[in-house]
Amino acid sequence: MAKSRAVGSSSALARYPPGNPQRPEFSLPLALYAASKSAATMLTVQYAKSQPGIKFNAVEPGTTATDMTAAFGIGRRPQDSAAVVVRLATLGADGPTGTFRDENGELPW
Which site among 47, 59, 65, 94 is 20 to 30 Å from 4 CA-CA? Predict the structure, then answer.
């Protein structure tokens, strides 16, 4: 039974195809950011396979108001995005591992 949790911060931009065109970040030209988040998500999955005693999941916390998004004028309050992360960090023993999720559930990638 897993007792530890690890949550990696990812992005819908890590997906291929790159998610929903209705999302605010969809049209942003952030190739290196998207590639790094894709790599982080894959690393999360690999850790989940190699460390069964720990629940590893990647999370898309939503477009968050940060220094990076300020130039684009987008993003929700950090505490709203943090709630998604906290939910995964406090999973019960029957919770998922090796997944990529947002506030609505598992995301294909």
Answer: 65
| pLDDT score of 1 more than 60 | no
Residue with tokens 């590893």, as numbered in its chain: 56
- 29-82 pLDDT tens trace: 778 888 998 999 999 999 999 999 999 999 988 878 778 777 777 778 888 888
- Say how far apart CA 54 and CA 43 lie, in whole Å: 14
Place of tokens 């950090």: 78
Half-sphere exposure of 24 (CA within 13 A, CB side): 12
Exposed, middle or buried: residue 11 (CB in 10 Å: 0-12, 13-18, 19+)? buried
The whole-model pTM stands at 0.80
Structure tokens at 5: 């949790």
Is residue 40 within a helix (H) or strand (E), and if so which, with residue range? Answer: helix 31-50
CA–CA distance from 32 to each of 13, 36, 57, 65 (Å)? 10, 6, 22, 19
CA distance 15 to 53: 27
